[in-house]
Amino acid sequence: MIRLLSTAALVAAATAATPALAQLTSYTQDFESRDRTQINALSGDGWTFFGQAFEADGTTPAYVYNANGFPAPNDINAPNISVISDLPSGGTPPVDSQGLVIFSDYNNGDHRNGTNRVIQGDIFQDQTIANADLGKTFTFAGIASLPDTGAVGGSTEHVAFIKTLDPNNNFAQTNFLTFDMTALNGDINTPFAIDFSLAPSDTALVGQVLQFGFQTRASNDAPSAVNYDELSFGENTGAFLNGDFDADNAYTAADIDALFANLGNPAYDLDNDGDADSDDAARLVDGLIGTAPGDANLDGQVDTSDLAILAANFGSNVTTWAQGDFNGDGSVGTPDLAILASTFGSGTPAPPLATATVAVPEPATLALAGLGLISMVQRRRPTHAA
Questions:
Q1: What are phi and psi of 176, to 5 degrees?
Q2: How far apart, in whole angstroms, are the C-alpha atoms of residue 159 and residue 146?
Q3: Spatial contact of 143 and 30, defined as CB atoms under 8 Å apart
Q4: Per-residue pLDDT tens for 255-267?
Q5: What is the rounded distance in angstroms from the CA atom of residue 29 to the CA atom of residue 96?
Q6: CA–CA separation, 284 vs 91, rounded Å?
Q7: d(Cα 324, Cα 301) in Å, to the nearest integer?
Q8: Neighbour tally for 55: CB within 10 Å
Q9: Angle, alpha carbons 353-356-357 (nearest 5°)
Q10: d(Cα 337, Cα 366) in Å, to the nearest integer?
């Protein structure tokens, strides 16, 4: 029989085994080395699940279940709540071959029993705040994307979070900082970062539990899935996202330009082979940003707008990705056009049925068309008398 407890009692039970008071420690995970066939692949990495149900108004507790919390599940045969996905099995991790998928507890019968109850689930790791952590800023960061269009729907809420709980006050929540995932743009990789600053005067937070992770709130089987990868938590002393070379908590063309300007510099090594080269550029563009070479405006598609940018700068000695220098050689020329031609159409949504027979140009044909556009643009450039 399931014993129903108060929310405060459940939170207390879920966090009773807090670690010894020690300085907050860093955490990083790209899930590549986790054995996804193992049921404890997530719990063995420190992840815990805690669930609640609320009445239809979303705020009144209906009851609390899983009173002691339980290890985050990872059942690839019957996935529920959390699972490590991979490309061969049809998953779509944002980066490389494995990633984490978080979604609602659809095994909970309240999803479909007519009560309209809101099922809340937290997947998290926890640590304890120490005196040594005061005066510092800590960041929970990573990359998120939707497995497919409509993966988060209805009135579903899905956030990444940092929260703190006070064990001296029935584990009352004292901070809750979030990054909203409901507005993600399809399968385009979106970096997220949540900063939590501890002032020197925040002595009341010493001894409190700090959790970082993900929370879903869904009802009536509404979709709620989000992919995550490249997760990290720790003290923020500058650039925190892997590959965010200008430390602005976002992936932009400036990061690509910085990498190209520092080829050979181990500080710009993204694939851990000891140097920075074209492989690292591919990881940044294809993996972390989630687009293709030739996407000058980084809108997730390689199309005529990118060709127009390249054409406008063709023959110029420019050094930026946003101007069409896709190989980082300091100029925009035929090698850049060839790169764009080879990826043209990448990321472009499928056309409507009525236009589905329109063919995407072959690379050679596109290259010729591009040269024609370049010639036209150059003819239109004003000339100046000597």
A1: -150, 100
A2: 13
A3: no
A4: 898 888 888 888 7
A5: 12
A6: 21
A7: 14
A8: 14
A9: 135
A10: 9
Instruction: Find out whether 72 and 213 touch, Cβ atoms under 8 Å.
Output: no
Span 21-80, pLDDT tens digits: 679 999 999 999 999 999 999 999 999 999 988 888 877 777 766 545 789 999 999 999
> What is the chain's alpha carbon radius of gyration, rounded to the nearest angstrom?
24
Backbone angles phi, psi at 203, to 5 degrees: -65, -25
Closest CA to 159 of 180, 139, 175: 180
Strands 118-128 and 82-86, sheet pairing: unpaired
The dihedral over CA atoms of 215, 95, 148, 41, expressed in degrees to the nearest 10, equals: -50
Q: What mean pLDDT comes out for the span 290-310?
A: 88
* One-letter identity of residue 300: G
pTM strictly above 0.90: no
pLDDT at 65: 64
- pLDDT at res. 374: 52
Question: Residue 205: CB partners within 8 Å, gap ≥ 6?
Answer: 129, 134, 164, 174, 175, 198
Whether the Cβ atoms of residue 111 and residue 103 lie closer than 8 Å to each other: no
Angle value at C-alpha 26, between 235 and 102, nearest 5 degrees: 110
> What contacts 156, CB < 8 A, 6 or more positions away?
104, 182, 216, 217, 218, 222, 223, 224
Closest CA to 175 of 161, 158, 192, 156: 161
Tell me how long the chain is.
Answer: 386
| The three-state (H, E, C) secondary structure of the chain, written as one string | CCCCCCHHHHHHHHCCCCCCCCCCCCEEECCCCCCCCCCCCCHHHCCEEEEEEECCCCCCEEEECCCCCEECCCCCCCCECEEEEECCCCCCCCCCCEEEEECCCCCCHHHCCCCCCEEEEEEEEEEECCHHHCCEEEEEEEEEECCCCCCECCCCEEEEEEEEEEHHHCCEEEEEEEEECCCCCCCCCEEEEEEEEECCCCHHHCCCEEEEEEEEEECCCCCECEEEEEEEEEECCCCCCCCCCCCCCCCCHHHHHHHHHCCCCHHHCCCCCCCCCHHHHHHHHHHHHCCCCCCCCCCCCCCHHHHHHHHHHCCCCCCCHHHCCCCCCCCCCHHHHHHHHHHCCCCCCCCCHHHCCCCCCCHHHHHHHHHHHHHHHHHHCCCCCC
Q: Work out whether the CA dihedral 63, 65, 68, 73 comes out positive or negative.
A: negative
